[in-house]
């Protein structure tokens, strides 16, 4: 296997875009190299891994709904003379920035695979209070066809792909996907590289479970593992360890201050300290992360 260092230095190898009518906005999907037969695809939502080989195409997650045609163009290009439509789509969890393309692919014959709770949440109306959003049930073609309670393995393109459920973390239906022979792991939203995470408490997530799950993944991988976060650039074990250290430290800070009698607004005012200041630059800022920890602990 090529070294992780070389992989992290690899630049984008292909960009496909799709115009959006009068807006003239382009939906771009970039493709970067992973150990064969894998590719990292990045649009606007969650990161996507594509396995492209003799058995066809398999993808992990599929971004927002409107990005599906752009991904189709990229996959057709990667497949060459083969069929670019995925035979399998494996979802790491139910959120729409990871499952938005399900209906597009399901209508074209892809078999959608996910944890039992992904099916339950996608097939019923969900109130995402943290985002002030209501998500209506997904259309039938978007729903998982194959579901599992704990884990599932697929033998595809000469390798073994293991999807392992980790309970009550980002949601109640998260899977981390291991490409065994390539030593590549897709973390789903159990990893927002160098940023505070979104933990969806309303979907059965918890900060305590999230930290436990990240630690469990760290025990399984090694220093050569290529880590694909749900959001962000390629990473290595040291990056994930730093992430776990942040989680543990900030959870401890909030817990200790609550035990001392501070309320959540006082903790927000005090902040988490300079060490973690830069981690609030993503989707979840420091105040929101503190409030998520407090709500999960209580």
Automatic annotation (TrEMBL):
Output the Pfam families linked to this UniProt entry: Lactamase_B (PF00753)
This entry's Gene Ontology molecular function terms read: hydrolase activity
Occurrences of domain Metallo-beta-lactamase (ranges): 45-231
Question: Which terms are listed as keywords in the entry?
Answer: Hydrolase, Signal
- Signal peptide residues on this chain, from the entry's feature table: 1-22
Which family would the database say this protein is a member of?
Belongs to the metallo-beta-lactamase superfamily. Class-B beta-lactamase family.
Protein known as: MBL fold metallo-hydrolase
């Amino acid at each position: 296997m090529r070294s992780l260092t070389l992989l992290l230095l690899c630049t984008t190898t292909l960009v496909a875009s799709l115009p959006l009518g009068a807006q003239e906005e382009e939906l771009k999907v970039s493709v970067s190299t992973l150990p064969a037969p894998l590719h990292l695809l990045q649009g606007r939502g969650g990161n996507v891994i594509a396995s492209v080989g003799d058995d066809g195409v398999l993808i992990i997650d599929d971004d927002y709904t409107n990005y599906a045609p752009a991904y189709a163009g990229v996959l057709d290009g990667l497949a060459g003379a083969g069929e670019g439509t995925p035979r399998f789509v494996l979802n790491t969890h139910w959120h729409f920035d990871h499952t938005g393309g399900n209906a597009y692919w399901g209508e074209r014959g892809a078999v959608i695979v996910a944890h039992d709770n992904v099916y339950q949440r996608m097939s019923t109306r969900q109130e995402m209070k943290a985002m002030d959003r209501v998500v209506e049930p997904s259309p039938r073609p978007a729903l998982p066809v194959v579901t599992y309670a704990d884990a599932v393995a697929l033998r595809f393109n000469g390798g073994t792909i293991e999807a392992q459920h980790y309970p009550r973390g980002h949601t109640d239906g998260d899977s981390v996907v291991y490409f065994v022979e390539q030593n590549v792991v897709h973390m789903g939203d159990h990893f927002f590289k160098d940023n505070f995470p979104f933990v969806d408490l309303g979907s059965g997530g918890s900060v305590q479970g999230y930290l436990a799950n990240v630690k469990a993944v760290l025990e399984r991988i090694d220093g050569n593992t290529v880590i694909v976060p749900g959001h962000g650039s390629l990473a290595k074990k040291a990056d994930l360890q730093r992430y776990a250290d942040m989680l543990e430290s900030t959870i401890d800070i909030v817990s200790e201050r609550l035990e001392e009698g501070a309320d959540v607004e006082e903790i927000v005012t005090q902040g988490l300290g300079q060490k973690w200041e830069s981690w609030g630059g993503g989707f979840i800022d420091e105040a929101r992360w503190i409030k998520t920890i407090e709500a999960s602990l209580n």
